[in-house]
Write a structure and sequence with these properties.
CATH topology of the largest domain: 60s Ribosomal Protein L30, Chain: A
Strand order of the largest sheet: 6-8-5-9-7
Strand content: 15-25%
CATH superfamily of the largest domain: PurM-like, N-terminal domain
CATH class of the largest domain: Alpha Beta
Order of helices and strands: HEHEHEEEHHEHEHEHE
CATH architecture of the largest domain: 2-Layer Sandwich
Structural class: alpha+beta
Number of domains: 2
Mean pLDDT: 90
Shape: globular
Largest sheet: 5 strands, antiparallel
Number of strands: 9
Helix content: 25-40%
Radius of gyration: 19 Å
Number of helices: 8
Length: 276
């Protein structure tokens, strides 16, 4: 068995994998998302184990589906890996991808593998989304909030770039997806997205999508607002639902910060681009 066939065999679902494309039955309002996770762009192999690389590659893709109010069902992988990868290394990488997918009820059903000079992973998520929650829909006077505590990812990345180490519980290594909170709070949200490139950058996307700016309740330091790869949830809601959303956050033990209201004003992102 060659390496490509061996790697594919590590994911099971043999009845679905094998044709040029997979036929998916009973998909209700299909939602498709894709993100890349590339070595020396998003991670370095001396920062993370292969298991953690596989896990994070899957988590950051699941995040996109979750904040669309979708239910991830299937995943397709494109994995470009160094020719000298051993079977033990392939098993470790596959376990991180597969076990994370399974934890969210997702089956890996196909994709492609090729040899490369470095490790690059691209994941496509197929999800059911009967009631999507988009970035559009923001209205003047809506409140803006985010989950979690922002800023630690930026600090950990700076530490890694200086040659230091971070613990395996670091949210740069292991993002926390707020899927339980989102599932219960989504009916009260006007729009939402995940914070992948930093709060300020993703606010720019909300501004561009809705032509509304933001009136901040207090200044947010750039160390917090420019911290990327947080994968927390940025969302807006009608002020009438504040008590309900706070109750869901308390029930799910999800830190919540309400930091601004939507206003007819301009907005300009002060952060530098992360990848370009």
């Amino acid at each position: 068995m060659n390496k490509e066939a061996y790697f594919i065999s590590l994911f099971g679902h043999e009845k679905m994998i094998g044709d040029d494309a997979v036929i998916l039955e009973n998909m209700n309002q299909l939602c498709v998302s894709q993100d890349a996770f590339f070595e020396n762009v998003h991670f370095r192999r001396d920062w993370m184990s292969l298991y953690d690389i596989g896990r994070k590659a899957m988590l950051v893709n699941l995040s996109d589906a979750i904040v669309m109010n979708a239910r991830p069902r299937y995943a397709l992988l494109t994995v470009a890996m160094p020719r000298d990868f051993t079977r033990a290394q392939m098993r470790e990488l596959a376990a991180g991808l597969r076990e994370t997918a399974e934890a969210y009820g997702v089956a890996i059903v196909g994709g492609d593998t090729i040899a490369n000079v470095k490790l690059d992973i691209s994941v496509t998520i197929l999800a059911e989304c009967p009631d999507p929650l988009r970035r559009t829909g923001l209205k003047e006077g809506d409140l803006l909030a985010y989950t979690g505590r922002l800023g630690s990812v930026r600090l950990d990345l700076q530490r890694l770039l200086r040659g230091g180490r971070v613990g395996r519980r670091s949210r740069f290594i292991h993002p926390i997806l707020r899927d339980r909170f989102f599932c219960e709070a989504a009916p009260f949200m006007r729009c939402a997205m995940d914070i992948s490139d930093g709060l300020f950058t993703d606010l720019q996307r909300l501004h561009d999508a809705n032509r509304l700016g933001f009136r901040f309740f207090s200044p947010i330091p750039k160390a917090i607002g420019c911290s990327g790869e947080e994968f927390e949830i940025l969302f807006a809601f009608d002020p009438r639902y504040e008590a309900r959303i706070r109750a869901v956050a308390q029930k799910c033990r999800t830190p919540l910060t309400i930091f601004a209201e939507a206003a007819r004003t301009s907005y300009k992102n002060p952060c530098r681009p992360h990848h370009f």
